[in-house]
Amino acid sequence: MFNSLSEKLESAFKHLKGQARINELNVANTLKDIRKALLDADVNFKIAKEFTDTIKEKAIGEKVINAISPGQLMTKIVQDELTSLMGSEAATLDLTKNPSIILIAGLQGSGKTTFSGKLATYLKAQKKSPLLVAADIYRPAAMDQLTVLAEQIGVDIFVERENKDAVSITQNAIQYAKANNKNVIIIDTAGRLAVDEIMMNEVANIKAAVQPQEILFVVDAMTGQDAVNTAKAFNDRLDFTGVVLTKLDGDTRGGAALSIKYTVNKPIKFMSSGEKMDTLDIFYPDRMAQRILGMGDITSLVEKAQAQYDEAEAKKLEKKIRKNQFDFEDFLSQIQQIKKMGNLKDLMGMIPGMGKSLKDVDINDNSFKGVEAIIQSMTVVERRNPDLLSPSRKQRIAKGSGKDIGEINAFIKQFDQMKQMMKQMNNMPMGKMPGLRR
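Predicted structure:
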């Protein structure tokens, strides 16, 4: 995500390397490269110019204090301005009414239907009772897709396949929600390949009929400045309350994220990547600015870990580690928890300094499949008693997992090394072992 932009911004700061002070000359070269990086990311020229003009105004004459280098100071100024450009603070949903109505709008292919499912998943985790409404009367596949997603995540859906009036469908859905104690209604509307009058009139009529508390414009983050132009067209007609950036796991140049808030003066509320229903995140402008500048995002990483944290299981695992009883079942459980946190490469990119080093590294969600296949080819007794793995058992596991015996031996050796490391940590003096209490 934003790899190209991050590299170009990092390169721009090199003009200040070894300088004792920020001055007209070195800042001019830096700003020239920053402006070019923004334009390459498909940011509007006017926005890029205003952005760099503001940085220049704040940077010229700044003295370097407390051992902070000019490069570090410029990075801080750019970080603050990126944060401001994208909205400064995270924006929340207005869910004060019962039921609260959320209208989802955007072009076809932007990811509206998938986002609707993700939003329902997110709200369900917030102890809400969402209702998905299929209001795309033109594309039967949209109704089918939303129905499948609703079944997958375990939420209710309102569909009237024979009704060809989207306004009527949404009004009927509200009555259904009230009768069935649904406190949030998510309306998935129709899209087109481009903005047209029919689509705009229909979604405007739905808005007038149901008076939603939230109108979220869903935009494909890979489309850059085109997305910003589309957002302006939708906002002129709908006056939407927030933006959702989708497909952030793709080749995202960054133009949409950096330009939309400036153009329509509406906050980016969510960002989404992948097809999994639990891959929806609140958009934090300050955290995104840090990630763009290669600083990582430890806060979001910790929050994702905490969301999967089971205190009872953690205490149980701690006791097993202390007794040197960590086994293959425990290892498999930990792998599954990591996978629930989201895309593996994105997670590693949240660690400061890791983004650049991962640029050309192929890491995908299938990375654990080989290990999982090996462990799942063991019997329950073998998983719980690693010392039982005799040569004949290893041969059977190799056949069951589709691996050769060398791969099985290598995995077991790595597992034994990990257990040995845990044992050494366990033998450290009281209070010296991080995370474990005695």
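Summary: Confidence is low (pLDDT under 50) at residues 430-438.
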